[in-house]
Amino acid sequence: MAQESDHAEVNRQSLQRDIWLPLLYTVKEKKTENRGIVTLTLAPSAEEAIEPMEPGQFNMLYAFGIGEIPISISSLWNLQSTLVHTIQDVGAVSKAFCDLSTGDQVGVRGPYGTRWPLNKAKNKDVIILAGGVGMVPLRPLIERILNDRSRYGKLNVLFGARSPENIIFHQDIISWQADPTLNFQITVDHAYSNWRGHVGVVTYLIEEANFDPENTIAFICGPEIMMRYAVHACLDANVPTDHIFLSIERNMKCATGFCGHCQYGPFFVCKDGAVFSYPQVKIYLNIAEL
User: Fold this and answer.
1) What is the pLDDT of residue 147?
2) How far apart are alpha carbons 267 and 92 in whole angstroms?
3) Backbone angles phi, psi at 224, to 5 degrees
4) Is 241 helix (H, G, I), strand (E, B) or coil?
């Protein structure tokens, strides 16, 4: 028995080490969402693949010879070993990923991070507020709810973008707008004369949401200032404080909490997040540029 126990402990330690080592993945498909944003579908280059992911989690993606960045999973429709990541060109490493072609290879390690607490949303109304590329970590959450629709109450998806040109996931949006089981609303900060939708900040859309405040869970992701206002809009609508969850974006470097780049008050976003409850980060969210 002692030998079996020792062997089991070695196996557990091996599994723990594995998530820190990058695996080789190949770009299977590349889709341009808009100027500067692409969605990559990655397939493992060998039999070994990372563990299944959950909505809200992220991977560290490595561009050979350039560097590594944290990227949230952006779709879970395909439950096979492929990974879907949506990346915005904002720096040298992200540009390298946006410039990849099908057949190119990358390193992937993970999965890391906390997940959206879907179990808390069972039998409750749901409000999802997304700002810009904040829709990326929220998209798998929407997919998971729609795939198990009867377990949840009213579903409201409120999406804000800077302009019509900045909208992503167009095919999904068409599908969501046509789905009678959810209330999808979209707004832009500014638009040309041919735009027929809402103009204004995403928090205004809460007035068009259909939900029972005391029985509602809110999931929020976007620019920090947008999340700050979104939280207060939910509170003003009487959503309970502990029913509000956010995905915090920080400059992660190691995913182990060692380098300190993603420290957020007492938390390290790579280890303790990126998904937090509002009570966890309340005092820090109200500090601009913390």
Assistant:
1) 94
2) 27
3) -60, -40
4) helix
